[in-house]
Amino acid sequence: MESVLQFRESYDEKSHPYDNEPSVSITQIMIEGVNCYWFTPEDPSPDRIVIYLHGGGFAAGSVRSHGKMVSHFAKELQAEILFIDYALAPENPFPAGLNDVLTVYRELANRYPGYQLDLIGDSAGGSLVISAIGEMLKINLLLPDAVVLISPWVSLECDTPSIEENARLDRILDKDMLQMFARAYTGDVPLVVSSPKEASLTQFPPVLIIVGSNEILLDDSKYFYNEIKRIQSKSRLTIYDNQQHLWPKKDIYKEASRRALAEIADFIRA
What we know:
Elements: H1 2-13, E1 25-31, E2 34-40, E3 48-53, H2 63-77, E4 80-84, H3 96-111, E5 116-122, H4 124-138, E6 146-150, H5 162-165, H6 175-186, H7 191-194, E7 207-212, H8 218-228, E8 235-240, H9 247-250, H10 255-269
Parallel strand pairs: 3-4, 3-5, 5-6, 6-7, 7-8
Antiparallel strand pairs: 1-2, 2-4
């Protein structure tokens, strides 16, 4: 898996055209053995915690790759955000990262009874959000109050039409890359077990899904929205025209990113 590890290193070291939001403090913390980071804005909501799950194909991503973006999220949402540094594949294949997410979520629910707990996940982090809710249903764990999925990767089988149809438009992802990450993540476990597309969801929190029209994962969002709206009437899908995968990470200040941040904040607060 040398290519996966090389991608991880380069992913963390990519430069950002913007800095951390200076009004947001970042504090490292261990929760039940899982490394996490608190992003705390000035005057945060006293009874809301947002949990953030980063993307990176389950094999890359950290506070180094996503921290700047998440600091701006914390300011916009006026809420404390807990960034989970979950275990990465291939060293820790499925279900290690998922178990980390469930461990931290359960502990937060115990520590902060009565708080609104929300989940935001981008790309593979969105995949983990869906899988985590499927597991919460199995163990009768109280579900999050709201969920936001940004450019989520839903079908680890990589079998949706936009994988091919948007191949020339998507400058971030390609099918070979996704398949490499899927193999690293699943290890010896069949895709039917690890893919969130196969999760048995009888309930789901209110959910906002945002995705760029140029993404090869566009149909993952469409598919999940069409499935989940049958059981959750408070479901929304917004397709941002001419945007790439996880566009706020690239430029938090451009108009499409500001609109996305405002839409997420309005949805969470509602």
